[in-house]
Known about the structure:
The protein has 123 residues and is mostly beta strands. The chain has strands spanning 3-7, 10-13, 18-25, 31-38, 45-50, 56-58, 66-71, 76-81, 90-98, 112-113, 117-122.
Amino acid sequence: QVQLVESGGGSVLAGGSLKLSCEISGYLYRPYMAWFRQGPGKEREGIAAIDRTGTTGYANSVKGRFTISKDNAKNTLYLQMNSLKPEDTAVYYCAADSGIRPPSLRETDYHNWGQGTQVTVSS
């Protein structure tokens, strides 16, 4: 059984940085992974994705500010968030699945999810 556990959320002032981690246990064949977020009163959105080769994709809202990466040896996915804005306030989720697929920000492409970690950015 695959389990994903996020960590690293918290409160930060606008302009600050946070780094989220997602530890993945269990086996996924040729995994592709992503970060999603759900802000207050908003639908969950995909913001950063990475495929098995390390190719990445980003939503326009975070491009240039956020960086997704992974450490295969540690089975851990990361999201480095810089220049944070109040509108980045949300619960952040990591997601993963198996297969050969380019970086995907579609929620329906993932069947394994973490429990979420809160990020709050104040002005």
